[in-house]
Amino acid sequence: MAVSFPHPRRLSRPVHLGPVVIGGGGPIVVQSMCSTDTRDIAATTAQIAALAEAGCEVVRVAVPDAQAAEALPAIVRASPIPVVADIHFDHRLALASLRAGVHGLRLNPGNIRDPDQVRAVVRAAQERGVPIRIGVNAGSLPPLEGEPGRPPTLKEVQASLPKRMVQAALGHIRILEELDFHDIVVSVKAFDVPTTVAANRLLARQIPYPLHIGITEAGLPWAGTIRSAVGLGILLFEGLGDTIRVSLTGDPVEEVRVAYEILRALNLRRRGPTLVSCPTCGRTEVDLVRLAEEVERRLQGLPASITVAVMGCVVNGPGEARLADYGIAGGRGRGVVFRHGEIVATVPEEKLVETLLAEIRRDFPDLDRPRSAPAGPA
Amino acid sequence: MAVSFPHPRRLSRPVHLGPVVIGGGGPIVVQSMCSTDTRDIAATTAQIAALAEAGCEVVRVAVPDAQAAEALPAIVRASPIPVVADIHFDHRLALASLRAGVHGLRLNPGNIRDPDQVRAVVRAAQERGVPIRIGVNAGSLPPLEGEPGRPPTLKEVQASLPKRMVQAALGHIRILEELDFHDIVVSVKAFDVPTTVAANRLLARQIPYPLHIGITEAGLPWAGTIRSAVGLGILLFEGLGDTIRVSLTGDPVEEVRVAYEILRALNLRRRGPTLVSCPTCGRTEVDLVRLAEEVERRLQGLPASITVAVMGCVVNGPGEARLADYGIAGGRGRGVVFRHGEIVATVPEEKLVETLLAEIRRDFPDLDRPRSAPAGPA
Q1: Letter string b/e over residues B198-213, b meaning 16 or more CB atoms within 10 A of that residue's CB
Q2: What's this model's pTM, rounded to 2 decimal places?
């Protein structure tokens, strides 16, 4: 059901994290961050495996101290996906992470005060072909100076954020560019969606580097999912964003699932089947919620990017079922089954799901193969 | 944390549904649709009460037959919010709904073939000051004609949708305008987000009427929430949409909750507290998920539109906590509490939530009053 995307994607300079390319017009890369204690190698490795299985393509781990850095070689060895070390302030942790073989650094060079220390980190990254992601969050900007004699109001602080976030990012970028380092990815994130959109628009016009986008501190999973979908949806629809991270206070595997669903909603990437199903109303004469849930369950893990419509009535049902790859449109205790836009059967309600699945099985004979988890990224 | 909205809202002609105004620059109205059998007055009335309590401001019920129309007077009498009758094809159901006192009709006049019948419905609506919403869904368009000698491809069908949806809507609008009827709300919906956005952009330029926006047949709650947040987020951010309906295959009360959360993400409307909380990482030294969940639970139902930050570390924590109305930033087994941007206390982890709540209670003394359900709309 996709129409061509109305906005061309912003073209950015490609950056390599191991085998994964961010930017340069390639697929939008899905990433997440471990919530484990990095010093706990077993827990971190297990979480990375779960993330990778859910489709995560790059994973970040916090490196707050030397013990965390010491755990990195084992974590990097065990990880099926590139590992990014998240460093703040201490250049020795960055050097240790590079020696450990990480594929990327997240580090704001302006936070390392000594120019010699910055130079040492940048040289080491350069030698290893490791990119640096600069990440500016609204919450970690230097304080805004007010008018002489009075502090700035909260409103002034808020209105100033997009420009100040971008200025901070450009400052960090300049430090790297002056050292002739250009393998850069940049993010400017806020909790506030309009602030985040404004900052990214402003930044995108001024740099050639890929953008990592996200809504930071978005909250607990339910509200955080909606906030991320709104914010990342707007940015992606405008053609901005080369890699995305959904931030939820909870299991990072859920971040990956949400990220793919956002990309799917914009036809940017797909992982497995897309279910079109109506909200039911007083016209519905079949048990639609049960039908939709049953179809979703039976298709779970199918790697094929097909669209399946499960519709409850004769008003919009046949039209939607015809637009989908496969579909059912319920009537009074019975329904019509569609395949590639054509009616292929009319059967009683209790046979609708099996008949639909039989049609899908004609194209995907391994439909019923047991699957432990959702399939890999499309 | 709101910045001023970057896009001005499209100004539309205001339309009145009982006491509720749609368009004209007023707040974006949240609506939903009953999933009950309209003939079941008790079930429908109970669902409308639950929807209204969740903040639903307009409710639609399907009127597929005469028995459903006969149930309407009792439903309308019991409803605390305006009721819209959803009618297809049969003008007698529209006339019966108007006699029953509904506050709005959802009806595509072009589907009633006889001009005299259309005129009778429009006159009756006019006399009662009842607006008509025209609703065009991608799934219920007339078939696209192909080139001579071959049917159109699916790709051609998909690419043609936005223009054909708008043409269909304009056709229905013209019928009403020719009868000097202008209390019109219009929707053009598809499952595909870019199709829906393109259709609404095209339509918005050509009519003065308010837009009802939605992503139709968005699916089961989890995926449907994300798809709706992406699609409605893009439209609302562009300034389009005067009333929104989230369509989920499930409980319509959830549609209302999701609708408010989408509006909140864009600072368009707020219902109660907004929680800013970080995704936790290897730097987190407090049990942040537990803290965030506890704060969310304790604030549930508070009508005040406050922002509360629950942050796990010293990197972004203090900054975000300072930007919020209230906040905590955790450190090693202890944390700092903020109120209106100022540090007010440093306490051990186990006292963080109580100290935060005490600060909120200073401004909202009835914080702990028992509440049965989320507060009314902002």
Answers
A1: bbbbbbbeebebbbbb
A2: 0.91
